Amino acid sequence: MYIIDNADIYSEEAKDIKQQSFIIKNNSFHSIKATKMKSSLMKMNVASFIMTPTHVMLDEKLPNTSFPLLKQYFIQNFLQEGCHTIITSFAIQYEFQFDEELHKKRITLLNSPVDYCIAIRLPLEKLSTSLIRKCKKEKIAIILLEIQDESTINDIPWGWIREAMFPYNPILVPTLLTKEESKRKLILKQWNDVLGKEKIPKLSKELLQKTPISIKDLKKFGLYPKRGDLHVGGEINYNLYFKNGIVAEQSKILYDNSRLAIMVHKGRVITTANHVTFRPGFGEEIIIRRTSLFV
Predict the structure, then answer these.
(1) Residues paired with 262 in a beta bridge
(2) Contact at 8 Å (CB) between 86 and 74?
(3) Are residues 106 and 201 located together in one domain of the fold?
(4) What's the pLDDT tens digit per position in 101-112?
(5) What is the model's pTM?
(6) In terms of domains, do 63 and 201 share one?
(7) What angle do CA 27, 28, 30 make, to 5 degrees?
């Protein structure tokens, strides 16, 4: 049992910094106070840092390569970036591929050093009520839909899809296959107009690869508050950033890995300014039981 004292916590939603202190017990946040704690417990003073939750990122292209290269990939793209949870997908073209591809994806992630949440990726025109039911059964809460043209959005029986989604309500995420900017705008407008009218759980735009996912989207996916929040009862997962040089655009600066001092995951120091602990198989699959809890 110990205290994390004088922590300046950056809030993405409020876009501000507030000072808090934490009592740590049994590898979780036991108590949180807005003031400095007076106690005989051992204290870890973090006044010279900015504290945030660890990040969650999307990566659909995890390499299938040798262990040394895979280790380097995870260190450079996640562990040095303050990320210890990823969303990664398995892709199908036909529904009968679902079980086999999901199984293969889980096998490839057995040695993952970071926690992971599995999504599915498929062409929009292959979306069906039976596939939605498979996603509900396997607790696949994130469905990435490839869209080439806005006309295909109108071809889906959205009313039936909505009924099949209930009550688990997996989140649909657009993945645009065209690079043409005007076409992309047309697709997203049609996507939001049609799915908004049909009251389909969705994201309004694409997710960026290897970029911290916003609190708003983590809430929609059902990953919040397990990820993206420091709260009583929660796991000891946080980043500490050097304060020196932090100015107005804090949200951008905090994601600069050159300013990451320490990343802690489940109470263990994983990353420091000059060392990364790589633990193959340390990552666990995160199963989303319910989406949009805090939206």
Answers:
(1) 240, 272
(2) no
(3) yes
(4) 999 999 999 999
(5) 0.93
(6) yes
(7) 125
